[in-house]
Amino acid sequence: MSAPTVLTCGDPSGIGPEIAAKAWARGERFLWLGDPRHLPAGTDWRELREGEAPADGPLAVLRHDFPAAAPPGQPDPANARAVVAAIERAVRLVQAGKAGAICTAPIHKKALKDGAGFAFPGHTEFLAHLAGVERVVMMLACPGLRVVPATIHIPLAEVPRSLTPALLEETIRITGAGLVRDFGLARPRIAVAGLNPHAGEGGAMGREELDWMAPLVARLAVEGMAIRGPLPADTMFHAAARAGYDVAVCAYHDQALIPIKTIDFAGGVNVTLGLPFVRTSPDHGTAFDIAGRGVADPSSLIAALRMAREMAAARGI
């Protein structure tokens, strides 16, 4: 049997515990790492030890006690250090071979900053730090589309100076290597979106495409990559266009995330490429506004758990 996926609890006042219980009820099997007090009332659970594999029956719990209760929708900074420690423990488990992959439920960065002095922009950067990796890539994936934003959580005004040739090249290389290793694509087809409208329209709407993006793409193609671009982003995401590539590398956050959330809002998965272990996450936040009401949709978490297993299998884990 392959090593199981460990699912971290995320912020326990969000929908993470609820969607974990729902995913288990729908047949997913994983190790839930968290405080069982935070699971929805009536959840049938069984405590496992590290190294034990989940089986049918009650929800498999790797118990990780928190100092405080977790009222739905009310994040408590008192729990922040335990949230961080759960992520750290998950990384130790996967590094020790006691788990095959990590799937992370959403965290609340302000609560972590207030309660634990959390200095990272998010999960992705913290996991890279724990793994000792300088640069990783965020990919969002659903059955119909994979997208990678080269720049992520920065103001739009900062994108032109942040999107450097070195950054874009590194993003493309990590993306290509990740699709080979984690998705079994021997020669991934990569489409690169332009920065400007109409990919600059020959310099009339910006010169980045002419001055350095096109030469970079051409050089990588000469090396043997299956790569095209820079392409006008407004014509890259209809069905016929998507059939021509395996991943779209985009210039900035919304250029990548708007199309995938339009195509599959509930089923998108956040994947971190470039780590020495597999990590996925549902493509949504803590949803404090609906936490505890029993209405949270587990579709994205289920997709993330399944993708984690598939990626681990591609690595032979």
UniProtKB/TrEMBL annotation:
Binding site for substrate: 123-124, 261, 270, 279
Catalytic activity: 4-(phosphooxy)-L-threonine + NAD(+) = 3-amino-2-oxopropyl phosphate + CO2 + NADH
Keyword terms: Cobalt, Cytoplasm, Magnesium, Metal-binding, NAD, NADP, Oxidoreductase, Pyridoxine biosynthesis, Zinc
Primary role: Catalyzes the NAD(P)-dependent oxidation of 4-(phosphooxy)-L-threonine (HTP) into 2-amino-3-oxo-4-(phosphooxy)butyric acid which spontaneously decarboxylates to form 3-amino-2-oxopropyl phosphate (AHAP).
Gene3D superfamilies on file: Isopropylmalate Dehydrogenase
Enzyme class: oxidoreductase
The enzyme's E.C. designation: 1.1.1.262
Other remarks on this protein: The active site is located at the dimer interface.
Pathway: Cofactor biosynthesis; pyridoxine 5'-phosphate biosynthesis; pyridoxine 5'-phosphate from D-erythrose 4-phosphate: step 4/5
Phylogenetic lineage: Bacteria, Pseudomonadati, Pseudomonadota, Alphaproteobacteria, Rhodobacterales
Gene assigned in the entry: pdxA
Manner of cofactor binding, per the entry note: Binds 1 divalent metal cation per subunit. Can use ions such as Zn(2+), Mg(2+) or Co(2+).
Keyword Metal-binding: yes
Assembly notes: Homodimer.
Positions that bind a divalent metal cation: 153, 198, 253
Similarity comment: family membership: Belongs to the PdxA family.
Protein name (Swiss-Prot/TrEMBL): 4-hydroxythreonine-4-phosphate dehydrogenase
Keyword field contains Zinc: yes
Molecular functions per Gene Ontology: 4-hydroxythreonine-4-phosphate dehydrogenase activity
Named cofactor requirement(s): Zn(2+); Mg(2+); Co(2+)
Localization, UniProt: Cytoplasm
